[in-house]
Design a protein that fits this description.
By secondary structure, the protein is an alpha+beta fold. It has helices at 3-11, 13-24, 26-29, 42-54, 60-71, 75-80, 88-97, 104-116, 198-208, 227-235, 247-255, 322-330, 332-345, 361-382, 384-393, 396-409, 415-423, 430-435; strands at 129-141, 150-153, 159-171, 179-180, 184-186, 216-220, 239-243, 260-266, 269-280, 289-299, 305-313. Bound molecules: zinc ion. Zinc ion (ZN) is lined by residues 145-146, 148-149, 161, 163, 356, 362.
């Protein structure tokens, strides 16, 4: 078997989909509904919702139902293994009830497969993996809300309702692809007086990252550079690189005779790196020791500082490594650019109103969108036909529009057949179809 074939077997669409099915099919046996009266299984409901997010098309199910009626077959059956496509209201009711944490093993199963395929290695930095943690908001409204919404009372006496989430993602500064992992909701639970916040969500998320069994370097913004979070990170066996805004820390660093620095000139710009190993994070007696590094970018002609930032880490910093660390730390923008913005701009209908629900509907739609993104990123990483198609079609949105149109008109046997069809469509004239 050649490399492409074996990769397809390990991390192709079907294998990734199997990771989803392995987790959701057991839900059918836990179904408490009267089995003699149900038309649809829980797994068919989850898969139909997933297929809708995968193709980023709210109208696709309607077309596939029509195919079912006319041909007793559909792309949902052939591509996703869905036996019956439930009605929209059934889909929403069912998805609203499933706790998103049920889906967590899907993400770890997929990352494990990617690891055993050897493809995850591309993300490795010195045997470790950068895991960015960033917050995002996927719902905000003055009207639509549920009891789990985060609320904000405004001066003009209005209230806004939001859903926010922390998303971890594996990145490498040298790669375009970003691998989103199981997100952690920031949500209000019953009976809690204080609203949930990013710090509490991070405290729940960090221990859960152990499920991936990977040596992570957690990267996050200054909010997370507290002793609490750093200690939690280390207790769970992870390294960290966190932005710091602490002025008192910078003062201590500035006063140290051990402070090291180096300058690199690139195209009229001076990159000034400074670093100091073993400095106390806080003033108090129980403080921990951290390693500090910073970057200032200065325009040589104008002496203007165009960028400056500082970080703390547990990784020992040496002259050669400081640039790698800065590069890693600065790749935080990637999760914004390659993940959230793509989700928002390139056709993923995250803001589209699929329904909010009362319990978990909005959260699950976000999660299934993120899972679709993970599929697409892996296709981009390992699937030659998908890569060729992307190169041929240009913007992502063009490729996905073509995919959406194709599955509305033709019933394909598999995802691979669909991709191959789009890559080299057969030359057919309508007149030939008419006479045959
Ligand atoms: Zn809500």
């Amino acid at each position: 078997m050649n490399r492409g074939m074996s990769l397809k077997k390990l991390v192709g669409f079907q294998s990734l989909l199997n990771s989803v099915k392995e987790v959701i099919e057991p839900l059918n046996s836990q179904d408490l509904r009267d089995q003699t009266r149900i038309n649809y299984t829980i797994s068919d409901c989850v898969l139909s919702n997933f297929a809708m997010m995968f193709f980023q098309d709210a109208s696709m199910l309607q077309f596939q139902r029509k195919m079912e009626d006319e041909y007793q077959n559909s792309n949902l059956r052939n591509l996703f293994g869905i036996k019956h496509i439930p009605s929209d209201s059934t889909l929403r009711t069912m998805l609203d009830k499933i706790n998103p944490n049920t889906f967590a093993p899907i993400f770890s199963n997929i990352i494990t497969k990617l690891n055993s395929s050897g493809e995850l290695k591309k993300f490795s930095i010195d045997g470790k993996y950068l895991c960015l943690i960033d917050g995002s908001q996927y719902h905000c409204s003055n009207k639509v809300n549920c009891k789990h919404c985060l609320t904000k009372n405004h001066r003009n006496k209005t209230t806004s309702y939001a859903h926010q989430v922390l998303v971890p993602a594996i990145v490498n500064p040298k790669l375009k692809e970003v691998l989103p992992l199981m997100p952690e909701e920031i949500r209000n639970e019953d009976g809690k007086e204080k609203q949930d916040c990013e710090i509490n969500a991070a405290k729940r998320l960090i221990p859960k990252l152990k499920q991936y069994n990977l040596p992570f370097i957690l990267c996050g913004d200054a909010m997370f550079a507290s002793q609490n979070i750093i200690e939690l990170t280390q207790e769970n066996g992870f390294s960290y690189i966190l932005t710091t805004k602490s002025e008192t820390l910078k003062e201590r660093v500035g006063q140290s005779s051990r402070l090291r620095g180096k300058e690199v000139i690139v195209k009229n710009k001076k990159y000034l790196y400074e670093w100091l190993n073993e400095v106390s994070l806080n003033y108090n007696t129980k403080t921990i020791m951290v390693n500090y590094f910073s970057l200032k970018i200065i325009d040589i002609e104008t002496a203007e500082v165009s960028y400056k930032n500082s970080w703390v880490t547990d990784l020992k910093i040496e002259g050669e490594l400081v640039e790698t660390f800065v590069e890693a730390a600065r790749s935080r923008w990637k999760i914004e650019n390659e993940c959230f913005n793509i989700l928002k701009n390139n056709g993923y209908e995250m803001e589209h109103n699929y329904g909010h629900g009362e319990e978990y509907l909005a959260a699950n739609y976000f999660l299934l969108t993120l899972l679709s993104h993970l599929f697409h990123q892996i296709h981009q990483l390992v699937d030659e036909v998908y890569q060729k198609l992307r190169a041929k079609k240009g913007p992502l949105v063009v490729l996905w529009n073509d995919l959406k149109v194709a599955i509305k008109m033709i019933i394909f046997d598999s995802w691979d057949q669909l991709l191959n069809y789009l890559l080299s469509p057969p030359k057919i004239y309508a007149s030939q179809l008419m006479t045959s």
